[in-house]
Design brief:
The structure is a single chain. By secondary structure, this protein is of the alpha/beta class. The protein is built from eight helices and 16 strands. It has helices spanning 14-26, 43-53, 93-105, 122-132, 176-187, 205-215, 280-292, 309-318, and strands at 5-8, 33-38, 55-61, 69-78, 85-87, 111-117, 136-142, 148-154, 167-170, 195-200, 219-227, 230-237, 268-274, 298-304, 323-331, 334-341. Strand 15 (323-331) and strand 16 form a beta hairpin. Helix 2 (43-53) runs parallel beside helix 3 (93-105). It is globular, with a radius of gyration of 22 Å.
Length: 358
């Protein structure tokens, strides 16, 4: 169906984006589509429109990561007191946190939105709390099956504490079991050359060893403040990744979780599943379907464009003791993981979280 209106925002000052977008959407009727081309993601403006105008919007990007950004916005009915929605499942994972941080930054007191994601977005909660303080209200509306819905509200006005960094985590406020997965998950998404900051009770040497094991010499680690009970560490992602980092100690994952070697269990690799060309919203469903189709003793090699660590935790919680996970390569843009169903459950507790202190 042809759009009701078309807007091209490329090359225009960022201050004009919101005004032109609001003008076009304001003249549209419920059910009308507006085609937009821009040189940046527009989700914060679209959430702002829903808050200020009280009209529901639904939008989809033509490609998860292509430039320029092309999207189709459908105008819905009046919200009548409900929260506006932002569905990030059609964004490349590396873009999602940036979009959502900017969206939250622009909220006023008691303003919010409903976040829709294809996996549990709990790392975002920790990130918002670390950067804005105790002003985040976070309530799950639904969980699982490729659609997690969370109502996110800023209960007091605030500004992000992000000077000199792209993100910050105060790990003292994150449950111990969630710390390392949260940090690795977010680090994998920050752009090359950017810096994340950690605030910890002391310098997190176990985490530094994990970074060295997984990323080699492709990061810079700097302690910028150290006093009793508080240490600030800045981790900068270098512009290139050491090829050796992708093959160091493949028997352990990013949290130090050792998987039983697949070869020792005679897991037969029956296919390679490359999900990089699939929209992010379709990836988890496709991967779980492939796992469900496995016979005992078989597996497949997953190829993804970033570390699929959140997927590991979902499998670990849902798939049972026969589940196997083994990194084969951690190359930029091409992470390879053997996912298999063993003949029998492994002895012991190989896939439990390690008890190493932070």
């Amino acid at each position: 169906m042809e759009p009701t209106a078309e807007i091209d925002l490329r090359g225009r000052p960022s201050g004009e984006h919101r005004d032109r977008l609001f003008e076009a959407l304001g003249t549209a009727d419920a059910g009308d589509d507006v085609a937009v081309v821009a040189d940046r993601d527009l989700d914060p403006h679209l959430v702002r429109y829903q808050i200020e105008r009280g009209r529901a919007l639904d939008w989809t990007y033509a490609d998860p990561d292509a430039e320029p950004r092309e999207l189709r916005v459908t105008v819905g009915d009046p919200l009548e007191g409900a929260r506006g929605t932002v569905d990030v499942r059609d964004l490349k994972p590396q873009r999602r946190h940036g979009v959502l941080l900017e969206t939250f930054d622009e909220l006023g007191a008691d303003e919010g939105f409903v976040l829709v994601n294809d996996h549990d977005p709990k790392p975002l909660y920790h990130e918002l709390e670390s950067m804005h303080g105790d002003v985040v209200e976070w309530e799950y509306a639904s969980r699982g099956e490729g659609e997690w819905r969370v109502e996110v509200v800023k209960i007091e006005a605030s500004e992000a504490d992000d000077e000199g960094v792209v993100t910050r985590y105060d790990v003292r406020e994150i449950p111990k079991a969630e710390r390392h997965p949260t940090i690795h998950h977010r680090y994998g998404m920050i752009p090359e050359g950017e810096t994340m900051e950690l605030v910890a009770p002391h310098e997190p040497q176990p985490l530094r060893r994990e970074f060295r094991q997984q990323y080699g010499d492709s990061f810079t680690w700097a302690v910028v403040e150290s006093e009793p009970g508080r240490c600030r560490v800045r981790i900068t992602k270098d512009a290139s990744v050491d090829d050796d980092a992708s093959t160091t100690d493949e028997s352990a994952d990013a949290d130090g979780v050792s998987a039983a070697p697949a070869d020792d269990e005679s897991i037969d690799v029956i296919e390679e599943l490359d999900v990089r060309d699939l929209p992010p919203a379709q990836r988890h469903e496709r991967i779980f379907d492939a796992y469900d189709a496995l016979d005992a003793g078989t597996g497949f090699v997953l190829v993804n464009d970033h570390d699929p660590k959140p997927l590991y935790h979902q499998f670990d919680a849902e798939a049972g003791p026969a589940f196997r996970w083994e990194y084969r390569a951690r190359d930029p843009g091409a992470f390879r993981v053997l996912i298999g169903r063993a003949e029998t459950a492994a002895d012991g507790a190989a896939d439990e979280e390690p008890s190493t202190p932070f």
